[in-house]
Write a structure and sequence with these properties.
The complex is a heterodimer of chains A (299) and B (347).
Chain A lengths: L22 H12 L3 E5 L5 E2 L17 E4 L3 E9 L12 E8 L6 E5 L12 E6 L10 E6 L18 H12 L2 E6 L4 E3 L17 E3 L2 E10 L11 E8 L6 E5 L12 E6 L12 E6 L9
Antiparallel strand pairs in A: 1-2, 1-3, 4-5, 4-7, 5-6, 7-8, 9-10, 9-11, 12-13, 12-15, 13-14, 15-16
Chain B lengths: L8 E8 L11 H16 L6 E5 L2 H4 L4 H5 L11 E4 L3 H12 L6 E9 L5 H4 L16 H12 L3 H16 L33 E10 H7 L4 E10 L13 H10 L8 E3 L5 H10 L7 E2 L14 H14 L5 E8 L5 E8 L1
Parallel strand pairs in B: 2-3, 2-4, 7-8, 7-9
Antiparallel strand pairs in B: 1-5, 1-6, 4-5, 6-10, 9-10
């Protein structure tokens, strides 16, 4: 109750509500709803009124007595978005009021539409009724309309066991010792890292490994705003790093520097985990960090 | 259609309260009394051939609340009185019809409402049909937003209507002082596409008009505002049975009242939301030469159940003051401009 003694609360209420007769036409519509069907009334002119009225508003003539099942799907012709539902609204989360022209009807039904996001609402969208569990013969037997199903989510998950053999195994053994192993194709005069058994350009065999320093230059980079379990924080930077004396860049994380300070030509050095924690894995390298040397002009 | 000869009826006096955006604690008779007394003083009439009022019991939540309002009238010895549960504009229509009988020559009309007492947005749900619309809880702002969406008007045009209405309202001592909407695109939404600034202010207020015929009209006013045409038309109630982007009933009423028979200097339109002005300008075929809602209109003061009558009063006042020779007033009832009354006034 209000605290001011000169202000009183007043409630107008009809306990239990009014009992209203439906008449034959509205009664038929509500009975069909209870059976989870939506019907309209056909007018003398052949139009289908949904929801049905006893008289055709266009002519004043009684409707014919023929009921036509419509929908259950329909097309939204206009809509308004309620971001803060009121008590008594059909939904307690944001929803749209809509005029819905059900398939086979010549008029529009006013009801609620609840998409997952307001951006899904548009005139012309297709909607389908979501029925309440226990229909009783009431307009709210349709809880609301939902957008037509136009996509599904397919889950894919398969497990594999990968083994590093061949050249990759050689490379990882180098990583375990704390060095990057590459290889040089004498014919093409190019140094590749990680080490590979054959030159991708000429196909010639690369018989020997070559140790490369763990310093290099950033050739290009991306700032990532989605979290990644391997990255130190968000945003994080992944970069192409051209190791010194190599001709092909490797991709790696950049750390110990704010994302907005990373630039092309920046000199970086690998940050290794302590020797005692090293394994034959790229996890040995936390990331690359700036060395503080002057930037390099990229050709 | 054969034109019916009608008796010449004029508005000879108009009064309205200084409307408030909150409940001042006045009872309804206390709210009405000053405007009744004002039109009585202005005309010198103490008794009227007929009295008719418009109000809505649901605003106060009290059955037959209009009966107690009679205390403001001096209704003894008994007077000939009627009431419509509609805007006072329809009370004026009933009084105009009553004056056509020819046996009386004056009528008092008033309308009043205190929308501050309850939640108008939800009280308006009670006017909807009880089978298909009211059980959904469809409220005043929601159905207005559906119509705004159907119109699909340019946002800048709507904003300009609100800005102009509020500016005119600030210049009108009877309307509310509402600031220019400042936040543009950032103005908070009511029910999209309606912004909160598109919603008419909650307002308490009342208005009264005196009608007179023939010689009495010329006796009571130097410039009576003659009702040259008055007509109302209604559309199906259910929103889905209508084209919400236009108003066929307002257009029919305007044709029947003869809006297009001459230039319209001023049009006072019962536009509670800015998109309604766009619909009504088209329906009444108003041109850019017509000044719309120079009072500020309902977007500057919306004493529900008096708002439509005030439109007629404001349009008449321009003629009573000698500032205009031909004006038009529009009043609306029901959801989304379901029912429209158009009055043509001439010097």
């Amino acid at each position: 109750m209000p605290s001011d003694p000169l202000v009183a609360q007043h409630v107008l209420e009809f306990p239990g509500g009014y009992t209203r007769t439906t008449g034959p036409v509205i009664g038929r519509f509500l009975s069909e709803l209870r059976g989870r069907r939506i019907v309209g009334a056909r007018t003398a002119e052949g139009r289908v009124l949904v929801p049905p009225l006893e008289y055709d508003p266009a002519t004043g003539e009684p409707v014919t007595g023929e009921y036509v099942e419509v929908g259950p799907a329909g097309t939204v012709t206009a809509w308004a978005w309620v971001h803060e539902p009121l008590d008594g609204h059909p939904l307690d989360r944001p929803f749209a009021w809509a005029l819905i022209k059900l398939d086979g009807a010549d008029t529009a039904l006013v009801h609620a539409v609840c998409p997952e996001h307001p951006k899904a609402m548009e005139a012309g969208m297709r909607v389908w009724p979501i029925w309440r569990d226990q229909p009783t013969g009431h307009i709210t037997d349709i809880s609301y309309f939902a957008p037509e199903v136009t996509k599904i989510v397919s889950n894919v998950r398969s497990e594999y066991r990968l083994q590093a053999g061949g050249a990759l195994r050689v490379f990882f053994e180098g990583i375990q010792r704390g060095v990057f192993l590459g290889g040089r194709c004498d014919q093409c005069d190019k140094v590749y890292v990680p080490y590979r058994a054959a030159c991708p350009e000429c196909g010639g065999v690369i018989p020997e490994t070559r140790e490369l320093p763990d310093t290099g230059t950033i050739t290009t980079f991306a700032i990532n705003n989605l979290p990644d379990p391997r990255a130190p924080q968000v945003p994080f930077v992944s970069a192409y790093i051209l190791l010194d004396h190599a001709d092909i860049p490797m991709i790696a994380l950049i750390g110990d520097v704010p994302a907005h300070e990373v630039r092309q030509g920046m000199r970086v050095k690998a940050v290794w985990v302590p020797e005692s924690e090293r394994t034959a894995s790229m996890a040995n390298i936390r990331w690359f960090a700036p060395t503080g040397e002057p930037d390099v002009e990229l050709s | 259609m054969r034109a019916l000869a009608t008796r010449e009826v004029a508005i000879v006096a108009f009064a309205q309260t200084r409307h408030t955006p909150h409940d001042t604690g006045l009872t309804e008779p206390e709210l009405i009394l000053p405007v009744i007394n004002e039109v009585k003083e202005r005309t010198g009439l103490k008794r009227f051939g007929f009295t008719c009022s418009g109000s809505c019991d649901y605003l106060a939540g009290a059955p037959f609340s209009f009966v107690s309002a009679l205390d403001a009238l001096a209704a003894w010895p008994p007077i000939s009185e009627s009431h419509v549960e509609m805007d006072g504009a329809w009370a004026l229509y009933e009084a105009w019809v009553r004056l056509q009988h020819g046996d009386i020559d004056s009528a008092l009309v008033y309308g009043f409402g205190k929308s501050s007492l309850g939640d108008l947005r939800r009280i308006m749900t009670l006017q909807l049909d009880p089978y298909y619309l009211a059980p959904l809880g469809l409220d005043q702002l929601s159905y207005a937003a559906l119509q705004a969406a159907a119109v699909g008007a340019d946002r800048k045009e709507l904003d300009e209507i609100v800005r102009r209405s509020r500016a005119d309202g600030r210049a009108n001592p009877y309307a509310l002082d509402l600031p220019d909407p400042e936040r543009g695109e950032d103005e908070p939404l009511a029910v999209r596409p309606l912004k909160l600034t598109d919603v008419p202010p909650i307002t308490d207020g009342a208005a009264a008009i005196v009608l007179a015929t023939g010689d009495l009209a010329r006796e009571l006013s130097d410039n009576p505002a003659y009702i040259r045409g008055i007509a109302h038309r209604i559309e199906p109630h259910y929103l889905g049975m209508r084209d919400l982007a236009r108003s066929a009933s307002a257009a029919d009423a305007a044709r029947a009242a003869g809006v297009g028979k001459g230039p319209v200097e001023v049009a006072e339109l019962h536009t509670q939301f800015p998109h309604e002005e766009i619909i009504l300008r088209e329906a009444l075929e108003l041109t850019g030469d017509t000044v719309i809602n120079p009072s500020g209109g309902p977007l500057a003061a919306n004493p529900v159940m008096a708002t439509g009558l005030i439109r007629i009063g404001e349009a008449a006042q321009r003629i009573l003051d000698g500032r205009a020779r031909r004006t038009v007033a529009h009043a609306a009832g029901g959801p989304c401009l379901q029912h429209n009354l158009v009055t043509v006034l001439e010097a």
